[in-house]
């Protein structure tokens, strides 16, 4: 009986050992396959990154960025001159009366100097109560502006002398600097922009040489239009000069072109 039992036990243990070895073998194969897949993915990813870097370097290499500019000399076609005057009196009625008297004097002086009545405009009267330290109102200041605006620039030069004349007659005429402007900028800008872009392309081709082809523009950025006095070099600064009658209008573009 004991021999039979021992035989049965040996038979059972002999059947389990091959099955465990088979499981370990399958698990080892699965780990190996996983490592192969992971390695393949890493290689593919590395190749993709390298390809992307090469493509980026290729794009940067096959392009050129350059600046182009264009300018045009113009003559101002609008004159504007503004001044203010004020009266301080104990009452508003007294201040207004003095202000109205000065208004008549100013208009007459401007017309006598060559301005048309239609070119003269007076602003709204402003009232400012002046208080003492205790809060009581001591007097009132009334102020007003006058503006002369004209397209007759040559006829406006004698008008500027009115300031000295009025001050000599005790009229507190405080004038600002005259402004000379050009109102054709909106129409001029597209033409100058196209000229600046053409200049950029010409400069880019010159930089590359005749043996390298210049391709289509990748990007063109237009800077601010600048209005400067003659002789200025502030291209693209966005300046807006109003002190001179002759002016230089300029535009700058930053362009990037493909090369081949």
Task: Please characterize this protein's 3D structure.
The chain is an alpha+beta fold and 260 residues long. The protein folds into three domains: 1-61; 64-75 and 183-259, Protein of unknown function (DUF541), domain 1 (Translation Initiation Factor IF3), CATH 3.30.110; 78-181, Protein of unknown function (DUF541), domain 2 (Alpha-Beta Plaits). The protein has helices spanning 2-61, 92-112, 162-168, 185-208; strands at 63-75, 78-89, 120-122, 126-131, 137-150, 174-175, 179-181, 214-222, 226-228, 246-259. Strands 2, 3, 4, 5, 6 and 7 form a six-stranded antiparallel beta sheet that branches. Strand 4 and strand 5 (137-150) form a beta hairpin. The radius of gyration is 43 Å and the shape is elongated. The model is unreliable at 1-17 and 40-59 (pLDDT under 50).
């Amino acid at each position: 009986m004991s021999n039979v039992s021992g035989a049965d036990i040996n038979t059972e243990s002999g059947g389990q050992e091959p099955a465990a070895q088979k499981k370990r073998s399958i698990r080892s194969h699965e780990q190996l396959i996983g490592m192969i897949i992971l390695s393949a993915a890493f290689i593919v990813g590395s190749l993709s990154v390298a390809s992307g870097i090469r493509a980026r370097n290729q794009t940067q290499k096959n392009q050129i960025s350059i600046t182009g500019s264009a300018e045009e000399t113009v003559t101002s076609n609008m004159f504007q001159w503004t001044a203010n005057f004020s009266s301080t009196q104990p009452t508003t009625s007294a201040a207004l009366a003095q202000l109205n008297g000065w208004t008549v004097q100013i208009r007459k002086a401007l017309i006598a100097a060559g301005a048309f009545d239609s070119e003269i405009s007076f602003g709204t009267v402003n009232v400012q109560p002046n208080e003492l330290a205790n809060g009581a109102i001591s007097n009132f200041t009334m102020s007003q502006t006058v503006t002369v605006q004209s397209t007759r620039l040559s006829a406006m030069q004698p008008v500027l002398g009115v300031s000295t004349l009025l001050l000599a007659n005790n009229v507190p005429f405080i004038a600002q600097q005259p402004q000379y402007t050009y109102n054709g900028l909106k129409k001029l800008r597209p033409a100058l922009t196209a000229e600046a872009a053409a200049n950029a392309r010409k400069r880019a081709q010159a930089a590359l040489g005749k043996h390298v082809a210049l391709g289509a523009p990748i990007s063109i950025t237009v800077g601010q239009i600048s209005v400067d006095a003659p002789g200025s070099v502030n291209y693209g600064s966005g300046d807006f000069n109003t002190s001179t009658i002759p002016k230089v209008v300029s535009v700058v573009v930053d362009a990037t072109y493909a090369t081949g």
